[in-house]
């Protein structure tokens, strides 16, 4: 299997998208955008179905958001503190909330995922703020679909217009998405504080 060619990837891209998008829900550095954009670039070459790429990405996004939301809604975040990696994740969640703000409005749940760390921040903040589970679920589903369409579209557009190899098209798509996300993130975070404004105390045991 030659992974340097579009034919070599085939349906394997779906198996990459699922864990990466799920992982991104609790650890933003996971390159979920790159996985979905690559799926779009592969779709432009006709090796995968763009609609299925979007559906898989949206479903994984929704599931990851629900996990984070329920974790904080049920006040189970202390479970993370049992492990070293969990304490890092817990601390990172509060840092993400501090940067992206605590807004738990439905609009923020849908739109904040387009800025770095925004998906994690709004899911955790909505759980802490005791937002309706049904309302959050619907907004997370809608936001996940819009995000998946955007990321898949970036890869598909780059692939179909540049006619470059799929990996080059995916890099172009990632670059464009990153620049847009950073610009939006800077605009949003300048209007917010730099301290985690959630009500949950940040009593995280230090790492040994």
From TrEMBL:
What keywords are annotated for this sequence in UniProt? Cell membrane, Membrane, Transmembrane, Transmembrane helix
Its predominant location is: membrane
Domain of life of the organism encoding this protein? Bacteria
- Would I find Ribonucleoprotein among this entry's keywords? no
InterPro entries listed in its UniProt record: DedA_domain, VTT_dom
Mode of membrane association: Multi-pass membrane protein
Q: VTT domain: from which residue to which, for each copy? A: 30-156
List the GO cellular component terms.
plasma membrane
Places the protein is found: Cell membrane
Annotated family: Belongs to the DedA family.
Q: Which PANTHER family match?
A: ALKALINE PHOSPHATASE LIKE PROTEIN (PTHR42709), UNDECAPRENYL PHOSPHATE TRANSPORTER A (PTHR42709:SF6)
Q: What is this protein called?
A: Membrane protein DedA, SNARE-associated domain
């Amino acid at each position: 299997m030659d992974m340097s060619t579009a034919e070599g990837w085939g349906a394997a891209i779906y198996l990459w998208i699922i864990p990466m998008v799920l992982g991104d829900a609790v650890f933003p550095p996971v390159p979920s955008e790159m996985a979905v954009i690559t799926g779009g670039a592969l779709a432009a070459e006709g090796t995968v179905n763009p609609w299925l790429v979007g559906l898989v990405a949206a479903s994984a996004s929704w599931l990851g958001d629900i996990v984070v939301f329920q974790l904080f809604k049920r006040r189970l975040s202390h479970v993370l503190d049992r492990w070293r990696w969990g304490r890092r994740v817990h601390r990172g969640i509060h840092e993400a909330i501090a940067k992206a703000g605590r807004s738990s409005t439905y609009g923020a749940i849908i739109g904040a995922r387009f800025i770095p760390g925004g998906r994690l921040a709004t899911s955790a903040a909505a759980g802490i703020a005791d937002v309706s589970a049904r309302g959050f679920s619907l907004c997370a589903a809608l936001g996940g679909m819009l995000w998946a369409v955007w990321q898949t579209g970036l890869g598909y557009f780059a692939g179909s217009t540049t006619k470059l190899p799929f990996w080059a098209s995916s890099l172009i798509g990632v670059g464009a998405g990153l620049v847009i996300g950073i610009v939006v993130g800077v605009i949003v975070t300048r209007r917010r504080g730099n301290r985690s404004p959630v009500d949950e105390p940040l009593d995280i045991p230090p790492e040994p």
